[in-house]
């Protein structure tokens, strides 16, 4: 039986860089979600899906989710945009 997947050194470097930069990837994804939310004003179904995606993105990353918890709970797009901007400047 195999003990798992064997990766080449090149593949391992790519995987390691991904996990080293996961916080930047999550912040970028959140920025894209905020933009989509601004465009989806009035479409409650789409906004609900986007809030769910924002929650999932935060779960994946190493971003301090305590800052975002209140914003997600209140579903405040402007506050989320401010937080994403402040976190991306760090």
For the biggest sheet, the summary is: none
Structural class of the helices, strands and pairings? mainly alpha
Span between N and C termini?
A: 46 Å
Number of helices: 5
Number of strands: 0
How large is the radius of gyration? 16 Å
Whole-number mean pLDDT: 88
> Percent range for helical residues?
over 70%
Shape: elongated
Percentage of residues in DSSP E strands:
under 5%
Instruction: State the order of secondary-structure elements, H for helix, E for strand.
Output: HHHHH
**How many discrete structural domains?**
1
Q: Regions with pLDDT < 50 over 5+ consecutive residues?
A: none
Features:
single chain, 90 residues, mainly alpha, 77% helix, 0% strand
